[in-house]
Design goal:
CATH class of the largest domain: Alpha Beta
Order of helices and strands: EHEEHEHEHEEEEHEHEHHEHEHHHHHEE
Structural class: alpha/beta
CATH architecture of the largest domain: 3-Layer(aba) Sandwich
Largest sheet: 8 strands, mixed
Number of strands: 15
CATH superfamily of the largest domain: HUPs
Number of helices: 14
Radius of gyration: 27 Å
């Protein structure tokens, strides 16, 4: 809208962010709130959205230019730790200022049914919620708006704090959980199928910073660029500011073990070696846990017997976020987080290369004897030397290959 001096005034909206579990954190609450505030502001910067967010009495509040609102809503409603956001306006915590703002809302909604949700967080505010609702109801009636708490077309929420009052009718749910970065770093074994991206996202939702380890079928690590693995890493990076994608060629493992391992234990033996590689990588880089997309008995290698055999000798804790999910539940989650369409694109998974007729109850002793046929320790050491790390960030959305 043009001002009297001919300048253009850019519209703005206030976004009120409500967090999820942080309220329950007691004396540690400040740490969790600070991390969420930090993540939000980093998300704004990475997406070139002007305007900062700051903590305001159990909320995190920011004012955003109208042109950036849709982008800001997307960033916030995909950010772990956020329960929901309200998009509206901010005014002074005074009765008349609130009534004026409510009048502005009602006058554009003639003929509508509106419910009022008044939250007087600042208990010293002189007007009680029922009385404030009554006064707003009178204004609504003058504007041709019916107050209907049972079957409303829209709900107007009014939050009153000691520093400001916030009015909004647009409420959008977030993922909930905890802010990324409060629970430490984890390393996720990443196949590029449906399950492992879902597992990675669930760990982000629990406050973990997640990096990925992918074993690929190509002869060189650079060939991962341009594949669906690259795209899946980019999709997951939208939930945390950046991540590392460690890549390792299957070629050396194949050359060393080809024709030497019992076929009925070859897949579990392969998984054991890869977990041992992940274990060494995790210990070297201070990852607190290894994450996998295993789901009990989904495939032969994921029976309880085979999971136990595959993790033989691993010192780093192994977390399996989708362990009790059935395939339909994992598919629904993958669709929800936006990785499903990319995950189902054709790609040669190394487990499918190794898989023979797998024994569903492989014993640890069998794996140990199988791997005695090759110099497993030397193989793991050599595989670690072949790993490259690809940095995936929001800002450029490009992969930069770095040799460790």
């Amino acid at each position: 809208m043009s001002s009297e001096k001919g300048q253009v005034t850019v519209g703005q909206a206030t976004i009120v962010v409500h967090h999820a579990e942080i309220t329950l954190k007691g004396k540690n609450r400040n740490f969790f709130e600070h991390k969420l505030e930090e993540n939000i502001n980093e998300g704004m910067r990475n997406n070139l959205i002007s305007g900062g967010f700051a903590r305001q009495e159990s909320r995190i509040v920011g004012t955003i230019a109208s042109a950036d609102i849709e982008k800001a809503k997307h960033v916030l409603t995909t950010m772990p730790g956020i329960r929901y956001i309200g998009v509206g306006k901010q005014t002074r915590p005074e009765e008349q200022a609130i009534l004026d703002a409510a009048h502005e809302f009602f006058r554009t909604r003639s003929g509508k049914r509106v419910s009022l949700n008044t939250k007087r967080s600042w208990k010293e505010f002189p007007t009680k919620s029922p009385e404030l609702n009554r006064k707003m109801g009178e204004i609504a009636k003058q504007c041709g708006v019916a107050i209907d708490f049972e079957y409303p077309d829209v709900t107007l929420t009014i939050e009153i704090t000691s520093k400001a009052a916030y009015l909004y009718h647009e409420r959008i749910e977030g993922p909930g959980g905890l802010p990324v970065g409060v629970s430490g770093k984890v390393l996720c074994l990443f196949s590029g199928g449906i399950d492992s991206p879902a597992a990675a996202w669930l760990m982000m939702k629990r406050g973990c910073t997640v990096d990925l380890l992918h074993v690929h079928p190509f002869s060189t690590n650079s060939e991962v660029a341009g594949t669906k693995i690259e795209q899946l890493a980019k999709l997951l990076s939208t939930y945390q500011s950046s991540l590392k994608l460690y890549v390792l060629s299957y070629t050396m493992y194949d050359l060393v073990t080809q024709g030497k391992l019992d076929q009925d234990a070859s897949l579990v033996s392969f998984r054991n070696i890869m977990l041992r590689v992940a274990d060494e990588l995790a210990r070297k880089n201070k990852y607190r846990a290894i994450v996998t997309g295993d789901s009990i008995a989904q495939v032969a290698s994921q029976t309880l017997h085979n999971l136990a055999a595959a993790q033989d000798g691993i010192r780093t804790p192994i977390l399996r976020p989708v362990i009790t999910y059935d395939k339909e539940e994992i598919v629904r989650l993958a669709k929800h987080i936006g990785t499903y369409d990319e995950s189902i694109k054709p790609y040669k998974d190394c487990c499918s290369i190794v898989a023979g007729k797998a024994n569903i109850a492989t014993r640890k002793e069998h794996i140990r004897k199988n791997l005695e046929k090759v110099d497993a320790d030397s193989l793991i050491s050599n595989l670690l030397q072949e790993i490259s790390v690809i940095k995936v960030g929001k800002e450029e959305q490009e992969l930069e290959q770095v040799k460790e």
